[in-house]
Write a structure and sequence with these properties.
Oligomer: single chain
CATH superfamily of the largest domain: Enolase-like C-terminal domain
Number of strands: 14
CATH architecture of the largest domain: Alpha-Beta Barrel
Order of helices and strands: EEEHHHHEEHEHEHEEHEHHEHEEE
Low-confidence stretches: none
Strand order of the largest sheet: 5-6-7-8-9-10-11-12
Radius of gyration: 19 Å
CATH class of the largest domain: Alpha Beta
Structural class: alpha/beta
CATH topology of the largest domain: TIM Barrel
């Protein structure tokens, strides 16, 4: 089967600034891949991330470098031998899943062995880093959400978490310092995080500097994000963390992500399925991956000023899959 491949970049403005310890974003810049064969087209999206040295231009160049090989052999397993994990491979992998589903006339759930189409899921809604009083206000508007993620840095994070807890007393909480703490800061804050009934602390210390976590007995489970990209990372992660955040733009697509989830479960890790700030096109494969996850963090499109037509929807902290679109049968 011969296919035709096209790729381009897109920019999606955010409805409001998104702040984390590393800085602020006002737009999501993604790449979109389309692969056509036998009269049908598969689509996929990836979000190049500066933290991992990725840009839209570089991602598109990577895709162009393998385009001829993918057109000649549009196969997901072969793709993993052509390019490394990352946003470019994720966009290609997603397009190949979508193409296969449409060519076979089945939903992706049939390809992954699921018994039914994916259903709605409770997802974390993110409280962006700000002054504690403003974070309290933001959390108050989300107090009916079952799960909130709190972005913090090293500057008085306890005050931020307390402010959110006051505004949302019944929500489960994930605290995400985005690598901005040290092991000493983590140890000092752990009793307060336990007191505030935090369910998970995500990537508190920098990737590459987390060996000290092997000697820590956490009062709150720790989740690897930047420290974990692919299946090969899971064994080390399991010595330092109690959970792992699987993101398709890190794994290079759903194909590797499914294997990473299996590896994580076999090591006794809890699984979070996360995302970059992205459109509903990225949510399609992530929602399939997230159906049995312990934590779901798929609020990417919720941050956009506008989304793709017929995309996912959000209601009281739950993400509802799109009725049609990525991964659906024609």
């Amino acid at each position: 089967m011969l296919a035709r491949l096209a790729a381009h970049g897109e920019r999606w403005p955010l409805a409001r600034p998104f702040r984390i310890a590393r800085g602020m974003r006002t737009a999501a810049e993604c790449i979109v891949v389309e692969i056509e064969a036998d009269g049908v087209t598969g689509r996929g999206e990836g979000l190049p991330y500066a933290r991992y040295g990725e840009t839209v231009d570089d991602a598109l160049a990577r895709i162009r470098s393998v385009a001829e090989a993918v057109e000649r052999e549009p196969d997901r397993q072969a793709l993993r031998g052509l390019m490394p994990a990352g946003a470019a491979r994720n966009a290609l992998d997603a397009a190949l899943w979508d193409l296969e589903a449409k060519r076979r006339g089945v939903g992706v759930q049939a390809l992954v062995g699921a018994a039914a189409a994916p259903g709605p899921l409770p997802t974390a809604l993110t409280v962006s880093l700000d002054e504690p009083s403003l974070m309290r206000e933001a959390a108050g508007r989300l107090s009916d959400a079952p799960l909130l993620k709190i972005k913090v840095d090293e500057k008085n994070p306890e005050a931020a978490v307390r402010a959110v807890r006051e505004a949302a007393p019944d929500s489960r909480l994930i605290v995400d310092p985005n690598e901005s703490w040290t092991a000493d800061i983590l140890a000092r804050l752990m009793p307060a995080m336990a007191e505030l009934k935090v369910d998970l602390i995500e990537q508190p210390v920098p990737a590459g500097e987390d060996e000290a976590l092997e000697r820590l007995k956490p009062l709150v489970p720790l989740c690897a994000d930047e420290s974990a990209h692919v299946s090969a990372d899971v064994e080390t992660v399991a010595r330092r963390y109690q959970a792992v955040n699987i993101k398709l733009d890190k794994t290079g697509g759903l194909t590797e992500a499914l294997e990473m989830k299996t590896a994580a479960r076999s090591c006794g890790l809890m699984v979070m399925v996360g995302c970059m700030i992205s459109t509903s096109l990225s949510m399609g494969p992530a929602i399939h991956l997230a159906q049995d996850a312990d934590f779901v963090d798929l609020d990417g499109p919720w941050w956009l000023a506008f989304d793709r037509l017929d995309g996912v929807s959000f209601e009281s902290g739950r993400i509802h899959p799109a009725a049609r679109g990525w991964g659906s049968a024609l």
